[in-house]
Fold each of these.
Amino acid sequence: MSENQHFFIYGRNPIIDKLNQNPDQVAKVYIKEGLFDANIKQIQQLCTANKIPVSNVPPRKLIELVGKVNDQGVVAMVSPISYQDYEEWREKIGHRKNPFIIVLSEIEDTGNFGAILRTAAAASVDAILIPKHRQVPVTAGVVKASAGTAGIVPLVRISNVNQTLSELKDLGFWVAGLEADAEATIWEHDYKRSLALVMGSEGRGLKEATLKLCDLKLSIPMSKKVESLNVSVATGLILYEVVRQRRAK
């Protein structure tokens, strides 16, 4: 049994109950191929209503997730961390002075995600926004990599990164993102303002459409012998420049 298995539940009624009571804790639902009865339809409808991804998979996949148990053809990946509702969070954050948040875009490695959670907690980040799709959920591996700090910084799930960034800009946030060819380095911007730092995937970085939404484009000076930095390391460097500026007298 893998450590991630502790974060899977199975059986139709338990999953329906979880989707009704705490849908924010459900990261993904796996349904055995070929099932179309009333309970399965209800689960699919609840997932659609709460924008939870569903995968139709062969029986062997369910066995990989929870072992040879009476799974009733459905398994849910449940986060050990509760997420905040985006609309409620946005209403509250708009009243704070110069909030500082991170928006993640397609981070796929559990180690990187956990390290970002740990550094964000140390740097007193106000929230981390994560997309529901193409983003590693909070698993046991992520919690372990965070050294137990996962959940200290509020986690807010969002449906679309670019749409969310546009909404944050309307609230007065400045959006900052890494661009390798940016003229200004991470040390040449003013971060003493409402700031949303968006960090892209490990291999591809930020998409072009996301970069166009960035008010501040950041670069990290590096030796020509090194092509790029790990996303969690890059995030840490920027976070502590923000901390340095905000603590300066």
Amino acid sequence: MQPGKRLQGKVAIVTGGASGIGAETARAFAVQGASVMICDGNAALGKAVVEEISKAGGTSQFATLDVRSESQWAEVVAATEKAYGKVDILVNCAGISGRDPKMNIQTSQTAGPRLAEQSLESWNLVMDINATGVFLGTRTVIAPMQRAGGGSIINISSICGIVGSFANAAYHASKGAVRIFSKAAAIQYAPDKIRVNSVHPGFVDTPMTNPGHSNPDVAKTRLQATPLGRFGTPRDIAMGCLYLASDEAAWVTGSELVIDGGMTAN
């Protein structure tokens, strides 16, 4: 790799950028020279990440975004082009587990309801945010990336998009959809030099997983399934996203980057 910043002059949009993997990815991109539009539903946390990046000498802005909204996606992408002139990178990181948001400590091994207890409403919510949100974001940035001469779309899936488990079936279904959607989009837009890849984190310590990892039994089960013997950190995943966003990955599209401490090697 040549010395210097790996994303110098590039413009990125990161959803779910107020915390966890999204926030760490935004920080990593900014450190490497990208201008970053951080998007989330939590404005207070999102603006705090922007302030942190600014103090470190980086460039970023915050935009409120419900990834289920076509109109909000159009507004965010237009605002990004207006502010920075183009869109080179999209990281679709926003997602939910399907767990009851009021649950501070997960009471069973399953993050959401078991299949027989899954309501249509809760199924649709998980699919809308985790899968439809990725579709809308990807679709909205296609034209700007074509104008820019190419780009990199990074869709955060999960090991749950590759293998099954006792976890929430809606979450598995949504993340599996992200995996295959990314491959189809990669093939369709390869002629435009738009690369589309999926990232598959294992068990990572984030605000979303905190209720599960706060239960010693759940944490023990997950650690025992992870050969490297520790939970991942948001930075572990952000570094994979940085590679896929950079020109170092210029010949990488339609791929699955698994970052899971060896869990799916079992």
